[in-house]
Amino acid sequence: MEHKTSNKFCYASLSHPTIKESIALHNFSILKLSVLVSEFAQQMAVAHEAFSKEIQAIISTFKRKNYELKKQRPMETPNCIFSTWEALLQETEVDAQAHLDAASLLLKNVYLPLQEVASHKNRQADMLASFRDRLDSTFNEALRQMEQLGKQNIVSRHKVSREKHKQAATDQGVCLWEKIVKAEKEYHTSFKEFASLPREPNEKEGEVVRGRLHRNHNNYILNIRATNKMADEFNKALPRVLEVRTVNLVKEILHESDD
């Protein structure tokens, strides 16, 4: 039986932050190699095209000389030397056309695709690196807040009333909702900016608007998924907490009855 691979990932499945520089260096070297190969293909195409034009110019010159030589011959008689010479001219002309075709194929199938891929992957790598940095910052900030909340709960466990706990939970929910609303507004604003771009925008301006749209989109999705994940974990943890509280309460009642 084949096992289906899950497409869901968590923060733990991502690469460790300590190897971020190694990954960035690897991506840079790969992109640099792509650009290097594309430049090689471009220069080879230029060389093939120039070589083809030079050969065709030489062939044209010697075809004209051959035509003049034919007119000087006293009569048209079969001659193996002339036949071999004309065959050599034809084969050389075919070779020149082959070099021209090779130049066209190098530009079409190697240079242009590699240039487009390298440019796209470079922008994609920058966006992913920026998103990962923001994700790590959000994760570290969440850990710091959790540690602070844990310390506060330990210090004031017996001092805070049930109403204050409820108010703190409500405030936290309101804070999360405000973050989602803010992220949604920023996403809508950046999308309107992107939609209002002209058909042929300035390259720098278009990159800035598209980058802002991608960042706000990722931030919006991240906030929604984080809130949904927190709600799921709360729904899973609440029954267990109630179960533990119930067991402890039953034990206390039984203990009091025994006394």
TrEMBL record:
InterPro entries found in the cross-reference section: AH/BAR_dom_sf (IPR027267)
Source species, domain of life: Eukaryota
Name of the protein this chain belongs to: F-BAR domain-containing protein
